[in-house]
Design a protein that fits this description.
The chain has 245 residues and is α+β, with helices and mostly antiparallel strands. It is 52% helix and 13% strand. Strand 6 and strand 7 form a beta hairpin. Helix 7 runs antiparallel to helix 8, helix 8 runs antiparallel to helix 9 and helix 8 packs parallel to helix 10.
Length: 245
């Protein structure tokens, strides 16, 4: 089955991410679309397995197969967790609604480590750009600050909120290059320290609810297996001049 067919016919959840989901969109902002598709169980019985993710078919579109999406969410992958909490849902079916109902099952104090590692990686890239060119990529600096805010607030409250609210204008000032790099560094350090402090008394559980998520995935796979395979093809061979199905 072609990857774009999986996205077209088997998407269970689709949303808008990026600046539009974060409350940071401007007139020139792209529309980043993310989604989850459920590959028919019958496809996993073949030698060629369905893809774990699909880029496209539209521009700025990316989708994950449900099992891969759940695996990454259980590992507290920042991009995946945020995808589950987008305020702009473009499509959701019954299975997608069940997935969204599991949002809290994916959240745990693991997020402190994964968000921190991701932030450190992005900060390293910004610092390399500053060393090479004297200034950072301002848009990337803005999004890193937003991520650090999101991490801190998640650890403090136990809830993941994407929209930056009243921090929109200060963050957009960073994007426009109106905040100096030393000020940005100081801001990043403060947010990272606040996240470390929040992790010590976070209301989040130590681990995500693996059993609940796995039960959902198994039930969905079983239901799909009971459906007829619409992509099954009958191969006819010629034996002694006769067609054999």
């Amino acid at each position: 089955m072609r990857p774009e067919t999986l996205v077209r016919d088997h998407t269970i959840y689709a949303c808008v991410m990026g600046s539009r989901a974060f409350g940071l969109a401007t007139e020139d902002s792209d529309t980043d679309r993310r989604g989850v598709f459920l590959a028919p169980t019958a496809l996993f019985w073949r030698f060629e397995k369905p893809p774990t993710h699909v880029e496209g078919p539209a521009e700025e579109q990316f989708g994950w197969e449900l099992e891969r999406f759940c695996e990454l969410a259980l590992r507290a992958n920042p991009n995946i967790l945020e995808c589950l909490h987008s305020p702009f849902v473009e499509y959701v079916d019954d299975t997608g609604r069940e997935l969204l109902a599991l949002r809290e099952a994916f959240l745990s104090r693991r997020a402190h480590g994964t968000f921190t590692r991701y932030a450190l990686g992005q900060r390293g890239k910004l610092e390399a750009t500053v060393r090479a060119h004297g200034t950072p990529r301002w848009k990337h600096a803005m999004h890193l600050l937003r991520l650090l805010m999101s991490s801190r607030d998640l650890l403090r409250s136990g809830a993941l909120t994407l929209d930056v609210g009243d921090q929109r204008e200060p963050l957009l000032a960073v994007k426009r290059g109106e905040v100096s790099w030393p000020e940005i560094e100081s801001w990043m350090n403060r947010l990272a320290n606040e996240a470390d402090e929040a992790a010590l008394r976070s209301p989040l559980p130590a681990e995500p609810d693996h059993r609940r998520v796995e039960d959902f995935l198994v039930r969905v796979r079983r239901a799909s297996a009971l459906q007829p395979d619409p992509y099954d093809e009958v191969v006819h061979c010629v034996v002694d001049g006769r067609g054999v199905g």
